[in-house]
Design a protein that fits this description.
The strands form three sheets. Strands 1-2-3-6 form a four-stranded antiparallel beta sheet, covered by helices on one side. The chain has four helices and nine strands; from the N terminus they run βααββββαββββα.
Length: 191
């Protein structure tokens, strides 16, 4: 059965747009938890500093201070490290072409093609183009269908839409290649 789409459009995501989109996702779901844990670990470290000042021979307090400050630093550093790693991966991929299909009560997102520069390593350390994944559409992943229900959230920013399903799945849809009427369809997905 052929699906009826209100909007069907191909697009690609630049590394800068991905960075900004992932940062927006982190601000909404990851940084909140991270900042709470940073605060807890910092308060614990302050408490242990007070204990160490009260009793300078309490060496266990010094150990706990270092552990708490290390955990607070980890909570600050890890989201930034993950974002940097993902952006580097997106840069290496180039700009694959994706396709969005907006239906009455769902959104389909699929990979249409990958850049020709993507190469697969052979066993001898040489590289050669992976012609099977570039030329055959059957090697591309199946479209992802996202139901337009209460778990879906669409956030609009200046340069992109952030389509979030639950708290772990997100898609960045750049505005640059869409016309105004197509942007309206995306804005009204859940309406």
């Amino acid at each position: 059965m052929e699906e009826k789409y209100k909007l069907e459009k191909e697009y690609s995501i630049s590394a800068n747009t991905f960075r900004e989109g992932y940062l927006a996702f982190q601000k909404k779901y990851i940084y909140v938890k991270s900042y709470i844990f940073m605060g807890i670990f910092t308060l614990l470290a302050a408490d242990f500093i007070y204990a160490a000042v009260k009793d300078p021979k309490n060496y266990f307090a010094y150990l706990l201070i270092v552990i708490c400050l290390s955990l607070a630093f980890r909570e600050w550093y890890n989201p930034r490290k993950i974002r940097r790693s993902l952006v580097d991966t997106v840069k290496e991929l180039g700009e694959p072409v994706y396709k969005i299909g907006v239906g009455e009560s769902f959104v389909d997102i699929s990979t249409v093609s990958v850049p020709d520069g993507i190469e697969e390593e052979t066993g001898e350390g040489e590289t050669e183009p992976d012609e099977s994944s570039v030329s055959e559409e059957s090697d591309l992943p199946e479209p992802t269908r996202i139901p337009a229900d209460e778990k879906m959230n669409i956030l609009e920013y200046d340069e992109f839409f952030l389509l979030i399903y639950g708290k772990a799945v997100f898609y960045i849809i750049p505005k640059e290649n869409f016309e105004e009427k197509e942007l309206e369809v995306i804005r009204n997905i859940k309406k």
